[in-house]
């Protein structure tokens, strides 16, 4: 036969009274701490005010003197040079981290000490990627079956195949196209290997345009002869009927496809004059991230916080010293 332990009501009252006493002590400690803080501010209001003014003034000065600017340029790597672009940008950034100002000067960058970083990332454009090739669409569809489509379109293997890429870099002062952007682009376009590929690619484009023009001219000749034949038949009151399955319809479709290809080839010539072709850029956008441009707000509170920590440490030291003297 089991016996359950009996709880003495007086023990419960003792536990509750001890708990309420502890809670009351905690609340009182918080009130004392809060009041001590008010007294500390009251005793040191002049020092706190002076520290705030000094911090704000110094912050204004530093914000005005050490501004950071962001710059961006959108580029298209031609002739399969995407990996080449990324490797070159990685090299420049590594030289910046190493402080190799000689390398930066050699590639033409003015004031290399103010050049603080550079990176490149793809501009995700799935629709253009799909429209460029039916194979791209099939590849994405196949890869999406085994994973998250959003992760796939942003992963390194896929993203490097996008048309446009964004090069962003930062400087500690205002810069210009001649001082930084042009030297970077000129450096990226210095490659004997890709210059040879560019030369042959341009020759192929010109040849293709010439051949297409010749084929279109032949089609126009055939169409002119057909028009004359139709005109003579109409004069002789003979009717000629055609449907979508006739060879004439196929000829018209071929001409339309060639005209579209000619337009695409001429646009390709415009964008193929450089290995890494820039399409647009923005310079000297003030960077207000993190502490940039916010020192006038950060420094006053930093100085006051350090002064407060010093006061707390001094008070703790005095209390400990008083305890030991009493002992």
Summarize the structure.
With 327 residues, this protein is α+β, with helices and mostly antiparallel strands. The chain is 67% helix and 11% strand. The chain has 3 domains: 86 residues, no CATH class; 137 residues, no CATH class; 74 residues.
Describe the structure.
- Helix 2 (45-65) packs antiparallel against helix 12 (295-326) and helix 5 crosses helix 6 (134-144).
- The protein has 12 helices and 4 strands; from the N terminus they run H-H-E-H-H-E-H-H-H-H-E-H-H-H-E-H.
- The chain has a 4-stranded antiparallel sheet with strand order 2-3-1-4, covered by helices on one side.
- The longest helix is centred in the middle third of the chain and has 44 residues, at 192-235.
- The protein has helices at residues 9-43, 45-65, 82-98, 101-106, 126-132, 134-144, 149-154, 156-159, 177-188, 192-235, 247-271, 295-326; strands spanning 69-77, 115-122, 165-171, 276-286.
- The chain has 3 domains: 13-64 and 293-326, no CATH class; 68-192 and 275-286, no CATH class; 198-271.
- By secondary structure, it is an alpha+beta fold.
- The protein is elongated.
- Keywords: Membrane, Transmembrane, Transmembrane helix.
Enumerate the strands of the largest sheet in spatial order, edge to edge or round the barrel.
2-3-1-4
Overall average residue pLDDT: 79
Total tally of structural domains: 3
What is the share of helical residues? 55-70%
Strand content: 5-15%
Radius of gyration, in angstroms, nearest whole number: 38 Å
Distance between the termini: 58 Å
Sheet/helix structural class: alpha+beta
Q: Biggest sheet, open or closed, and with what strands and sense?
A: 4 strands, antiparallel
Uncertain spans: 238-245
How many H/I helical runs? Answer: 12
Shape: elongated
What is the helix/strand order?
HHEHHEHHHHEHHHEH
Q: Tell me the number of strands.
A: 4
Transmembrane segments: 45-62, 297-317
Protein name: Chain length determinant protein
Keywords: Membrane, Transmembrane, Transmembrane helix
């Amino acid at each position: 036969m089991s016996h359950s332990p009996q709880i003495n009501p007086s023990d419960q009252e003792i536990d509750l009274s001890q708990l309420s006493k502890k809670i009351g002590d905690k609340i009182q400690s918080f009130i004392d701490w809060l009041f001590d803080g008010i007294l500390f501010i009251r005793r040191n209001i002049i020092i706190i005010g002076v520290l705030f003014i000094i911090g704000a003034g110094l912050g204004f000065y530093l914000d005005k003197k050490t501004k950071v600017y962001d710059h961006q340029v959108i580029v298209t790597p031609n002739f399969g040079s995407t990996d080449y672009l990324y490797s070159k940008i990685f090299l420049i950034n590594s030289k910046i981290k190493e402080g190799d100002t000689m390398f930066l000067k050699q590639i033409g960058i003015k004031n290399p000490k103010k050049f603080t970083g550079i990176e490149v990332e793809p501009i995700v454009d799935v629709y253009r990627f799909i429209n460029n090739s039916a194979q791209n669409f099939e590849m994405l569809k196949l890869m999406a079956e085994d994973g998250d489509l959003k992760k796939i379109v942003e992963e390194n293997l896929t993203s490097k195949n996008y048309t446009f890429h964004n090069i962003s870099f930062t400087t500690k002062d205002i810069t210009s196209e001649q001082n930084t952007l042009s030297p970077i682009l000129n450096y990226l376009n210095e490659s004997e290997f890709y210059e040879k590929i560019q030369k042959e690619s341009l020759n192929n484009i010109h040849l293709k345009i010439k051949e297409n023009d010749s084929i279109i001219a032949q089609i126009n000749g055939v169409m002119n002869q057909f028009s004359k034949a139709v005109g003579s038949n109409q004069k002789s009151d003979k009717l000629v009927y055609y449907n979508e399955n006739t060879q004439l319809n196929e000829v018209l479709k071929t001409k339309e496809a060639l005209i579209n290809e000619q337009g695409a080839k001429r646009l390709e010539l415009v964008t193929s004059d450089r290995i890494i072709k820039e399409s647009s850029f923005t310079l000297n956008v003030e960077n207000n991230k993190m502490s940039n441009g916010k020192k006038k707000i950060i420094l006053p509170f930093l100085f006051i916080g350090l002064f407060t920590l010093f006061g707390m440490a001094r008070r703790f030291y005095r209390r400990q010293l008083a305890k030991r003297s009493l002992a």
